Structures are given as C-alpha cells and as structure tokens.
Amino acid sequence: MDVNTIKNISFFGAFFTLFVISVGAWVRLTDAGLGCPDWPGCYGLLTPPISDLELAQAKNIHPDAIIDTGKAWREMLHRYLAGILGLYIFFTAYLTIKHSKNTPNILPIALVMLIIIQSIMGMLTVTELVKPTIVTIHLILGMTTASLMYWNGLKVAVNHNMINLNRTLVLIITLCIFGLLTQIILGGWTSTNYASLACTDFPKCSNQWWPNNMDFKNGFTIFNLPNINYEDGPLEYNAKLAVHFTHRIGALILSLLFLWLFIYLFFVQTKKNIKKVGMIVMTLFVVQIMLGISNIIFSLPITIAVLHTVNASVLLMSMVALLYYSTYNKQR
User: Tell me: the pLDDT tens digits for 78-126?
Assistant: First the structure.
C-alpha cells in the first residue's frame, strides 16, 4: 500500500478523533454521561430502551434510575463512535507497521495501547459515576490520541531528518506543549467539577482580582474521592472558586509562554514554513482565549463550550505539527 494513503488515513483518523471528542463534550455538557448507568450496554441492551417492554425491563434492572431516552441515546451515540474509532486505530496501526519504513513501530503500538486504555477509562467513567479524575484523564487521553494519529500521518511518508536542529526553538515549543497539556488538564478539571461558572464576571472573579476564601484543598482532591454521583457537581462553592481561578491563572501563564514562542517564531527564526505553521498556531490560540472568555460572559452556552474543548485539541495538534517541522530540517 502507498504510504501516502496511510498518511491520509492517519489524518482522517485524527480529525475523526476530534469529532468523537466533540460528541463526548456535548454528552457531558448536556448531563448525559450517565444516560446509560451500565457499560458497555444500556440498561442491559445494545441500544437504549424504547418499547414499553424494554422500559419495564430497564426499570427492573435499575429500579432507582430515572430513564431519559434522550440522554441514553446521546451516551450510546458516543459509545458507538468511540467503538468505530477504536477499530479504525487498530487498522491504521496495522497498516503503518506493515507498510511504512519511516515510522518506528513504537508509535502505532502506542496508539493501540492508548485506545485500549481509553476504552477502560470510558467504562470507569460510567461505573465510577463520572468522577472528575477519571473524566479528566479520559479527556486528555482523547486529545493525545488525536495528536498521535496526526503525528503518525506526518511521520509515515517522510524520512524524518533531525540534523542541524534549532534547539532553542524546539525547547520553547516543548515547554509550550507541556504548558498547554497542563492547562487542558486544568480545563477538564474545571468542567468536570462544574466550576466553569464559579465566576461569572471578567476579568475580575467575583468582583475581586484575588477572590477570598478559595478552598484549594477540597478543590484539588484528586484521589480517594467518595463514591457519589458527580454529575450534579457536589463541590462546595469555595472549592469550585479555587478550581476556576486556578484555570484562569493557568491561562495567563500559558499566554506568556506562547507570547515568547510567537516572538521567537516571527522575529528570530527565519524558516518560512515554520512561520506559516506558527500563524496557524497563533490564530488557534487567540480563538481559544476568546472562547474561554465567551464561556464566562455568555454563561457557558453548549456550542461555545464544545468548541472550547475541540479547539484545545486542534491547538495541541497544531503544536505537534510545529514541533515536527521544527525538527525536520528540509524545507517542504
């Protein structure tokens, strides 16, 4: 098989992963994460219960559940898409290992391992009643999957030559990627703890530059969480305030890191192809900041909230592309 075909398959897989992430964000934001209280089926069925008989059987299996077929369908749609994506990634990994001489086997193997872990995290999301720690890990692994699929597409058709690297640029990009990953984790933690609207004003928070009575201890309890339903956001307000404000501080620090990157990209380094990718990164970063502010100002509309999640993943993928072209010394 032509390696360019595998490249296109990988790129499609990366953007299909983005679609699955967007559906997952939509499911969570519409409180449908527990639309089916069991896994992998839905009330013991392969599809959500519809008929009177199926509804009666579902009620018998889960007598305490409030059956909402709309939420159940949204949740199962996400599971169907995630299942298709898993098979797609297995297929892509197989083609990469068999036909590409430029891609080290560790990359497709990592993709296979990642999608297996993602399946387990998807199960735990339901069985552990959408605990913030599990849901946040599930989100960041989804974005990592999209980025690795994209990296696989970049690597598969080209013999990557890393001679005469601009080590300063690579260092800055690497720092920005780690900063972005940290901010994505903070964003996931904010969302899964229902802390996105702990402050409804901007740029101040609760009409203060540094809010009083923030409870960081309870806000950032990651392990040994109680076995309760987290879909209703049980955190106390002061804990949510700490989570929300930390996400804002993270955005400020990340903006400074990316400012350093943009200054170096456009005023120090000279390669035109890297500048072009840098323009894409800068555009996505500005859009991400605007979406984050819009979430607060417009009280978290679903469309903007989903776009904020998806654009974060696209921004991460663009940083992967920037790292690739910064370590590939040939102008393309």
Answer: 999 999 999 999 999 999 999 988 788 999 999 999 999 999 999 999 9
- Please state the pTM of the whole predicted model: 0.94
Q: Which residues of 125-135 are buried (b: 16+ CB within 10 A; e: fewer)?
A: bbeebbbbbbb
Burial class (CB in 10 A: 0-12, 13-18, 19+), 213: exposed
**Amino acid identity of 158?**
V
pLDDT digits (tens, 9 = 90+) for 40-77: 999 999 999 999 999 999 999 999 889 999 999 999 99
Query: Which residue in 54, 75, 128, 236 is the catalytic one?
Result: 75
Q: Establish whether 75 is a catalytic residue.
A: yes
